[in-house]
Specification:
Blueprint lengths: L8 E2 L11 H13 L8 E4 L5 E4 L1 H7 L3 H8 L8 E2 L1 H10 L7 E9 L3 E16 L2 E10 L1 H8 L1 H54 L1 E2 L2 E2 L3 H13 L6 E4 L6 H10 L9 E4 L5 H9 L16 H4 L4 E5 L9 H10 L1 E3 L6 E3 L3 E6 L3 H6 L5 H7 L2 E4 L10 H16 L8 H9 L5 H15 L25 H15 L10 H5 L3 H11 L5
Helix pairs in contact: 14-16
């Protein structure tokens, strides 16, 4: 807004007398004083020459002057001086219309009594005539503060915008700090997870891999092979005496496989009559045989997409072995009483305590099925070859059995542990668990008392005990002999062992394996 500065000045200018109807003017002034005098806005009465005739009380308060100080100035008849407002005169002459509507405009002035102010003026003509002279009512409003805020609004907006911008920048910096902190936390979390996974693997290898307890060299080698084969879909044959924990090996392989979210399906081929094992494995249709009152899904169908554990595979009847061989080779079979071929994708882990090579020679096991199963054999060592694992196994089973029986066995005497370690354990871990359960039953206090007289039995000395390197060397030689010394390529020794060919050649050099 273009400021229009004005100033009130007292001058000695002579004013030409004008004739008024004094009675009418007096009446009007009395009305002005009585009615408009109570208005809070400053009001002035101007004559047509824009000279001040009258002012209300608010005018005096606003401009901080008294009636006495302005008596000879504002009252036209009593003096020859008046407030001369030349610029105001020009403004009023320019904007006052001939009608009686108010016309708003603003002036900005440095007043002697009240300082710098911005005044909003409303002017209108009063149709009350005094001998042909029209009066003008001028209302004044102090809008300095409002205009100040209005004029400085842009500055305030800019200031607030700048504050918001700075706050936003600070927020971004804080966000970056938080993101950096979160990134560091994630990095530390990943590191801790990696360390946790590593420690878990170490614990599994050292103590308990899917409940396989021990830290002997033979057990380490078993767990090493479990880790090797778990992520593939290769058939695994678990060998070992009864009670050595062959099923635990199967569960450990499944627990590390891609099918671990699904259940491990199990069939004990020795636990079912020969006339039911086919139905249990492959299923049957309703009416396929006497007593088949409904359709039954076999274990191969149930385990489609997961792992099937065939325990005691050496007990499988000879007449069913061709059907099992077909499933292994082609992934298809028919239910009993049906000609419809069913295709499945099943990872097979088989286990046996029999010497299948001997069974093949005796004609009790098909040679072609033996070769299909013996892709990746894992031999679970007997307990007599794992004497250093006995204290760990004893501790595990004592806690397990005591908790079940509501007892607290805290002391295992040295003579008891010596007796346990000097026994040959023909029943392996299963026998050990039974002996310990009887001992817990026999113990009335915190000390373990054996019920079995194990010390009277001779410790079995294995003439075939071998070092880990010897076991590994013999196994590699066995696979090489099976593949006719084909190291790499399809069905080569490296593929069967699950090793890179360069790794296998390095192991052969280290173990002194040379092709004859």
């Amino acid at each position: 807004m273009n400021s229009k500065k004005i100033s009130f000045k007292k001058t000695g200018q002579k004013v030409k007398a004008q004739k008024y109807d004094k009675n009418k003017l007096k009446v009007f002034m009395e009305i002005f004083d009585n009615i408009l005098g109570s208005v809070r806005e400053p009001l002035l009465i101007l004559d047509p020459d824009l000279k001040v005739i009258r002012a209300n009380d608010s005018f005096y308060r606003t401009f901080k002057v008294t009636r006495e100080e302005t008596k000879d100035v504002l009252i036209y008849e009593l003096g020859n001086r008046q407030w001369d407002i030349p610029k105001l005169r020009e403004l009023l002459e320019d904007i006052l219309p001939q009608n009686s509507k108010f016309n708003d405009f603003e002036v900005e002035n440095n007043f002697e009594s009240i300082g710098h102010k911005i005044m909003h003026l409303n002017a209108r003509r009063i149709h009350k005539e005094f001998n042909g002279i029209q009066l003008i009512l001028l209302a004044i409003e102090d809008v300095t503060e409002r205009e100040y805020h209005k004029r400085h609004l842009e500055d305030l907006v800019e200031k607030r915008t700048d504050e918001i911008r700075r706050a936003k920048e600070e927020a971004i910096k804080e966000k970056q700090k938080v993101e950096t902190a979160l990134s560091e936390i994630k990095k530390l979390k990943d590191q801790l997870e990696a360390e946790r996974a590593y420690l878990q693997e170490e614990i599994k290898l050292e103590f308990d891999h899917e409940s396989i307890i021990g830290h002997s060299d033979g057990l380490h080698y078993v767990l090493y092979k479990v880790e090797q084969i778990a992520h593939s879909d290769t058939i695994v044959l678990v060998l070992g005496e009864t009670g050595t924990g062959k099923e635990l090996v199967a569960r450990a392989i499944h627990g590390l496989s891609q099918q671990k979210e699904r259940a491990l399906v199990k069939v004990n081929c020795a636990a079912l009559p020969s006339n039911l094992i086919e139905s249990e494995l492959f299923g049957h249709e309703k009416g396929a045989f006497t007593g088949a009152n409904s359709r039954h899904l076999g274990r191969f169908e149930v385990s489609n997409g997961t792992t099937l554990f065939l325990d005691e595979i050496g007990e499988l009847p000879l007449e069913l072995q061709p059907k099992l061989l077909r499933v292994i080779q082609d992934g298809e079979f028919e239910r009993l009483g049906s000609s419809c071929t069913i295709k499945v994708n099943v990872r097979i882990i088989a286990a046996t305590n029999r010497n299948l090579e001997e069974e093949v020679r005796k004609g009790r096991f098909r040679e072609d099925l033996w070769y299909r199963l013996n892709v990746f054999p894992i031999t679970m060592p007997p307990l007599r070859d794992r004497l250093e694992d006995i204290p760990l196994l004893v501790d595990f089973y004592i806690k397990k059995i005591s908790k079940r029986m509501g007892k607290s066995i805290e002391i295992i005497p040295k003579n008891v542990m010596d007796a346990l370690q000097n026994y040959h354990w023909p029943g392996n871990v299963r026998e050990l668990e039974n002996v310990l359960e009887r001992a817990v039953i026999n113990s009335s206090g915190p000390k373990l008392h054996l019920m079995d007289e194990l010390q009277t039995q001779k410790k079995y000395l294995s003439a075939t005990k071998k070092s880990l390197e010897t076991v590994e060397r013999d196994y590699i030689l066995e696979v090489l002999d099976q593949t006719k010394w084909k190291v790499s390529g399809k069905n080569g020794a490296a593929e069967i062992l699950g090793l890179n060919r360069s790794t296998l050649r390095a192991r052969m050099r280290k173990l002194g394996i040379i092709k004859p």
